Amino acid sequence: MAMTLEQTIARKQNNWFTNALNSQALWVIVAILLACVFLSFATQAFATPQNIYNITRNFTFTAIIALGMTVVIITGGIDLSVGSVLCLCSMVLAVVMHAGFSIEIGIAVTLLVAVIVGAINGVLIAYLGFPPFVVTLGMMSIARSLAMVASNNTVVFQFGPDHDKLLALGGGAWVFGISNPVIYTIVLALIIGFMLRWTRFGRHIFAIGGNERAAELTGVPVKPIKVAVYIISALTAGICGIIETGWLGAVTTNLGNGMELQVIAAAVIGGASLVGGAGTALGALVGAALIEVIRNSLGLLGISAFWQGTFIGSFIIIAVAFERVRQLRARD
After folding, report:
1. How many domains does the chain have?
2. Rounded-to-integer distance, Cα 253 and Cα 31, Å
């Protein structure tokens, strides 16, 4: 029996409302808002303009890489090398500029290094069938080691003739007083969000994560796409390395150490499924934002920063449990 126009509209509205309630990113946003309201009353320092500026700037370093990680996780993969790739790219930029080259050449070489690292990960995983966990774990060690070799394990804080340009790139606020990293993050999120939602490449990414074998049988170029997603992940780490170098004004070989946990946590908390097939750019942003609010609030409330890992780990477990409940409901 055909539905009337009113029934069709009502069904679409109901589906939209149901999908919104089932959106993990929505509940994370609610959690962030509740935390911000609580902290605004619990501490005098949280709602100050300077602290809000710091939070919005600091969350971007996790968010940028979480965007690339989300793309990888949607395919059912994982990238444990992002923290070390960030360090390697930051060090390459610093060493190249310290040698007297321009910022444009430094950025070009840095992004090239990121592409090469991502391509190596992708080829080993897609074409040789190595497990993503093993490949990226190995690359995590290799990239960190290469960063030490490039700098002789020293701190680099002089960036040649374009030193001030680099500091302005990462530490400036060129648009309405908004921190530059925030602008970069928004632009990158829009690009990746558009790619995932509106392009054939994005649909193929979700198809691979949903059922790789079925995607291959329907003509999806699985192997090239898997290489591409690891390149995207490495590129986001490289971009973050460039921005963070400009913000910090110095590079050490400890940069990005342990960052892979925060990045994976941000993606998973935001709704990316570790088994593949689910994830959004918005989810990566709100997941990173929640982690930064937690980190910021611990200091303001006088709680030891050592508890940060406990909170992040707990949120990962809760996010996975939420995904499991959603799967069971969909199956029923």
Report:
1. 1
2. 35
Residue 1 falls within a domain, yes or no?
no
Q: What is the pTM of this model?
A: 0.90
Q: The CATH number of the domain where 162 resides is what?
A: 1.10.3470
pLDDT tens digits for range 263-309: 998 999 898 988 888 899 999 999 999 999 988 888 888 887 788 77
Give the pLDDT score at 15.
53
Smallest CA-to-CA distance from 118 within 97, 95, 151, 89 is with 89
Closest CA to 276 of 205, 185, 196, 214: 205
Residue 102 tokens read as 């321009």
> What are the phi and psi torsion angles at 158 (to 5°)?
-115, 125
Map residue 263 onto helix, strand or coil: helix
| Encoded tokens for 51 | 């602290």
| Among candidate residues 314, 285, 258, 275, the one with its CA nearest the CA of residue 193 | 285
Lowest mean pLDDT among 3-7, 48-52, 128-132, 307-311: 3-7
Residues 317-326: contacts with CB under 8 Å, at least 24 apart: 319/24, 319/268, 319/269, 319/271, 320/268, 320/274, 322/24, 322/27, 323/24, 323/271, 323/273, 323/278, 326/22, 326/24
> For residue 302, is it left (φ>0), alpha (ψ between -120 and 50) or beta?
left
Identify how many contiguous H helices and E strands the chain contains and give both numbers: 14, 0
DSSP per position, 17-86:
HHHHHH-HHHHHHHHHHHHHHHHHHH-SSTTSHHHHHHHHHHHHHHHHHHHHHHHHHHTT---TTHHHHH
Residue 276 lies inside a defined structural domain of this protein = yes
Task: Note the pLDDT of residue 252.
Answer: 92
The answer as to whether 41 is a domain residue is no
Closest CA to 235 of 145, 62, 117, 146: 117
The Cα–Cα gap between 160 and 162 comes to: 6
Q: What is the pLDDT of residues 68-84, one digit of tens each?
A: 999 999 999 999 999 99
